[in-house]
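[audit] Reproducing an earlier prediction to check determinism. Same input, same settings, fresh worker. If the C-alpha cells differ from the archived copy the diff job will pick it up downstream; this log only records the rerun itself.
[audit] input (349 residues):
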Amino acid sequence: MSLVRSTFAATAMFALAGSLYAETIGPAGESATPSSMVVVADDDVEKVKEAGYSAALLWHDQSDFVNAVTAGASDEFARLGIEVVAVTSAGFDAAKQRSDIETVMAKSPNIILSLPLDPVTSAAAFAEAKEAGVALSFLSNLPAGYKHPDDYAAIVTDDLFQMGKQAADALAAAMGNEGTVGWIYHDADYYVTNQRDNAFKTTIENDYPNITIVAEQGISDPARAEEIANAMLLKNPDLGGIYVTWAGPAEGILAALRTNGNTSTKIVTLDLSEPIALDMVQGGNVAAIVADEAYELGRAMAASAVLDLLGEDVPSFVVAPALTVTADNVADGWQNSLNIDAPASLTSK
C-alpha cells in the first residue's frame, strides 16, 4: 500500500444513509473548525488596541498566495490596532527561517504567524518564541512535539476534503458524468496534499458510478509531469479526464496533451495558476481549478492568535473554504481567493 493511500485511511468517516461522508482533519487527527467561527468580536477591539500588541509574519516563500495570506492578516491586524513589525520570506530554506525568527524576536512581537518548513528544525526554531509567550499561529504545518493549547494558538489551513471533492465534481461535470480518469497524486507523506488527492479519488469512486479511474501515478518532482502524462496517455489514449495534484505539474500535463494534439481530455487541478487558467478561459483542456480562500486564511490566523492572547479558547485546527474557479467566474475566483484582480490575460476579450 502506498504512503498516500495509507494516509487517507485516517481521513474518511462513514455516516448516515449509507453515503460516504468525510471531513478535513488535522495532522494529529484534530477535528476541523470553519474559519468563519474564529472571530475577534467588535466588543473586544478596544481592549486589543489598548494592549498595544505587535505581530510578525514569517513566511516560507513569496508568491501571490503568500501575498494574499499576508493581506488577510494585515487587514485584521489593522482593524485591531496591531502593528506588523516584520514580514519575511525564507525561500523554502529552514535555516533562513530560523534566522528570521531569531532576528524578529529582537523586536519582541506578541504574535507570530508562520508556515514551519521542517517539523524538527521548526520545533527548535520557534522554541524561544514559545517560551516567551508569543501567540503562534501556524499555516498548515506544525513543529514536531508542539501541543495545543500550551504551545500554539492554532493551525489554519484549507478545507482539504472539500478541495478534492470539488475537483472531482468539476471533472465529472466536464465529462458528462461518465468515462475514464487518470489520477496523478502527490507521492509524499504530506497531510495537506494527501487529503486533497484522496478526497478526489473517494468522491469519484463513491459518487460517480459511470466514471472509472483507470490510471494512477504518484508524482514528487513536478518536472516529471509531462513524462508521466505521456506514459499514461500511451496506455489510455481515450482518457476522458486527468486530476493533477496541484497547478505546477498540471502545466506539464497540459503540455503533453498539446504535444499529442489531444483536445478532448479534460484537466482539473488545485491552486490558481495563470497559464492553467489561460487554457481554461480559452476553451482548452482545463475544465476547472479548485482554490483556497488565501485571504481568509490570513484573517483567521491573525484572529486565532489575538484570541489566544485574550485568554479565550481557540480551536486547534481551523479551515478556510474552498472554491471552484471556471472560465465563467475566473475574475471573481481570483478576488475571492487571492484578493487581487485576475491577470489581464484572463479577462481581456
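[audit] rerun output stored. Observation attached for the diff report: The first strand starts at residue 12 and ends at 14.
[audit] end
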